[in-house]
Amino acid sequence: MQIVLYGCENWSLTLREERRFRVFDNRVLRSIFGPKRDEATGEWRNLNNEELNNLFSSPNIVRMMKLKRMRLARHVTRTGESRDVCRVLVGKPEGKRSFGKPSRIWADNIKMDLPVVGCEGMDWIDMAQDRDRWRALVNAVMNLWVP
Are residues 82 and 133 in the same domain? Predict the structure, then answer.
C-alpha cells in the first residue's frame, strides 16, 4: 500500500478521487482475503466492507493520506513563509483556471479537515507552531471515520 501512497502528502484530492481510492483499497483487500463461505447456504460470497475492516485493522487509505498531509503541514509551517516549499503548498496560484469548478489548492484540504475534528475557524498555520496541540490534532484526524 505504501507504493500507492508515495507522495500523497502533496496531492489535492477531490471527494470523488477520495472515494475512488477507498474503492481501490477495498478491492485490493478483497483480493487478498478472498471469498468467504457462508455457513447457512454453503455458497461462496465476497466480504462486505465491515467484514474487511474487522479483518484488517489498519486505517484505510484516505485516513493515511490525511495523516501524511497533516504531518507535512507542520513541517511546511515551521520552515517559514519565505521558503519555496511553503509558498508552493500554501500560496495561491496565479493565472486563469479552466472552465468549471475551481480546483482545490493544498491548503484547502487542511482547512476541510479542521471542522471535522472540532477546530473550525482556527488558523491552522498558527496552530501548527504548537507541537503538542498539533500532535493532538493529527491524532484526531487519524481517528476520523471516513465512509
Answer: yes
22-36 tens-digit pLDDT: 999 888 888 888 888
Q: Would residue 65 count as lying in a domain?
A: yes
Total-model pTM: 0.74
Which one, of 30, 14, 29, 119, lies nearest residue 65 by Cα? 14
Domain span holding position 82? 61-91+104-142
User: Do the beta carbons of residue 2 and residue 64 sit within 8 Å?
Assistant: no
Cell numbers given for 106: 493544498
| Structural domains of the chain, count | 2
3-class SS of residue 44: strand
Residues 110 and 126 in one domain: yes
Q: Say whether both 108 and 138 belong to one domain.
A: yes
pLDDT for 75-118, tens place per residue?
888 877 777 777 777 766 677 766 766 667 778 888 887 777 77
H helix intervals, the chain: 15-33, 49-55, 61-79, 84-90, 106-116, 124-128, 131-142
